[in-house]
Amino acid sequence: MKIAVKLLGLSMLLFCFSGVLTAQEPGNIMMIGAEEEVEEDRPLDDIVEKRTIVQKRVLAYDHVREADILWEKRIWRVIDVREKMNLPFSYPERPFFTILMDAAKSGEITVYSAEDDKFSNKMTIDEVNSIGSSVDTVTTFDPETYEEQIQIVSNDLNPEDVKRFRLKEIWFFDQESSTLQVRIMGIAPLLDERDENGNFKYERPLFWVYYPAAREILARERAFNGENDNSPLSWGDIFEMRKFASYIFKASNVKDERIQDYLSGVDRLWESDKIRQEIFNFEHDLWSY
Is pTM, for the whole model, over 0.85? Predict the structure, then answer.
């Protein structure tokens, strides 16, 4: 009986002590209430919060043995964002180039120098930050003293200036599954170089992204789906489902030449389509009916 009385008194003492602590720290209560109030005041610009894309994970590529690769062909393509099917690449809210640059600056993906397309030299964060940026000197005049002043102005790269992307991929036939497959190896944004008068000189790749290592990031980035706003596609879906328009400008050859090196005009398009047909005809010719 005495033990029960002591336990009851001890529990009452602890209850009173916890009440005193709560009364002495009203700031914690106000802080929690403030956080809840902030969350309640933030409107949701949708019916429900969409988390499917953010939580999406990609499956690893199927293992392919070297002995099962009967045939392969390296292809280089160009994606022009001004084509109707490629308009999601230039979606103003978040262009595809901005996604690549943000991921490269934060270190989420590694980008490689555009000296070659074999992913030889990694670029540092400082080198990435300096991509497309330039420094100019501007002459101004003081409105009061009319003295000439020289100001240094930095120009950042506008995502709208990137109108084309280069794609490197490998087509191969897997004997084990008896299927023709494709693996995208790299993506490179292209920037037009112009002279002082604004005349086009040439286009150059800014950097190369190794696509297999960037699949996880691209799978969590939303791409615009004009058919259904409630069913957004990820950029991983765009590339894996081949939902883009492109043309071939180079195929592996003994001279390592581009199509423009030996053809001109409309013949380039015919040659590009010829290479595409040869790839699909290879699989077709393996079967007998």
Answer: no
